[in-house]
Amino acid sequence: MDKGHEKKRIGNSIFPIKESELSELLIINTIMNNSQDTIYFKDRNSTFVLSSKAHALGFGIDSPLELIGKNDYDYFPKDFADNAYRDEQQIIDTGEPIINRVEKWIKPDGNIVWLLASKYPLYNSQGEIIGTWGTSRDITSLKNAQEELVQLNTQLEEANRQLRILSAIDSLSGLYNHRHFFEELEKAFTLYKRQKEKGKDITFSVILLDIDDFKTINDTYGHLMGDLAIRHIGEILTRNTRSTDSCFRYGGDEFAILLPDTSIQEASLVAEKIRTVIEKTSISSKQSELYITISLGVTSFYEAKNVNCLFQNADKKLYSSKHQGKNKVTF
C-alpha cells in the first residue's frame, strides 16, 4: 500500500485515508460519535455508508456499523421507505436540498417521534453528486408542548366563550341581559342601515313587554312569587319564539324580543300569541296559584332614525298598552 494512504476506521465507516486528511477526519469522527443530532450519509442507491451514533440509536441499534450497507426498507414500512427514497432520488436528480422539514417518524419499535430534518446532495472532489447526506433533530418534546399549548388555547377560548355567554345571561330569567340587549340592538340597527344603503329590503322588529301590576304581585305574594313570574316569562318567551329571534330581560320586569326578517305586522302576531299564552298559563307555588298578564309594544326599524329612537318608539307603544287597560298589544 502507498505510504501516503492507509485504511483507517473513521466515524462508522472504512475509507482509504491520506495522512494529511487524518486531522480533518478525526474532527468528523468526534462529531459523528458525540452529536445529539442524527447524521447519516447514503450512496446513490440510498444505502447507508456512514452513520452517527445518535442516528443508529434511533433505529434501536447500538453500533452504527450495523447500518452500513443497509437501507430504510430493512427497518421501516414500505410507504415510509418509499417516501425517503423518493426524497433522496429527487435531491440526486436536482441537486436541491430539503431543509428544516418537520417529519413524523415511526421508529422500528413503534414509537412516534417528530424530527426537524434536512437532506442535502453529497458531492465528491470532482463536484459530482455521489449520494445524499442528512441530519435531523428530535423535536418531539417541542411538538408535544406545542400541541398541549394549542389544546390549552382551545380550552381557554372555550372558557372565555362560556364566560362571555354567562356575562350576557340574566341568571333569573335565563334570557340575555340588559347590556347584551342594547349591544345586539345596535348591531342589528347598523346591519339594517348598511343593507338599506345598498338598496336591499331587510326588516327587523322589536317587542317590548312588562308584567302588569308587578309591584302588587311582589307586595301581595312576596318576592319569591315575583321571581317565579320572571322565570315563567323567560320560559314562555323561549318556547314561543324562533331560533333566529333573541329574547332579553333588560329590566326588573321588563323584557324584549329582537326579531330579524320580521315586519311589524308579523311581530304583532308574535306579540299577541305570547300575550295569550301568558294570560292562560298559571304560576304555581306551594302557597298559591297565580295568573298574570303582560302589556306589549311593537315597533319596526323603518320607523326609527337610530337605536334610541327605536327603543323610545317601542317603549311609547308599551305604555300605550298600559294606559289602555293593560294586557294588550300596541303596534
Automatic annotation (TrEMBL):
InterPro entries: Diguanylate_Cyclase (IPR050469), GGDEF_dom (IPR000160), Nucleotide_cyclase (IPR029787), PAC (IPR001610), PAS (IPR000014), PAS-assoc_C (IPR000700), PAS-like_dom_sf (IPR035965), PAS_4 (IPR013656)
Signal peptide (UniProt feature, chain positions): none
Keyword set includes Coiled coil: yes
Annotated SUPFAM superfamilies: Nucleotide cyclase, PYP-like sensor domain (PAS domain)
UniProt KW RNA-binding keyword: no
GGDEF domain segment(s): 202-331
Coiled coil: 139-169
Annotated PAC domain residues: 96-151
Single annotated GO MF: diguanylate cyclase activity
Keywords assigned: Coiled coil
One of the Pfam families matching this protein, by short name: PAS_4
PANTHER family xref list: DIGUANYLATE CYCLASE DGCM-RELATED, REGULATORY COMPONENTS OF SENSORY TRANSDUCTION SYSTEM
Protein name: PAS domain S-box-containing protein/diguanylate cyclase (GGDEF) domain-containing protein
Species this chain originates from: Natronincola peptidivorans
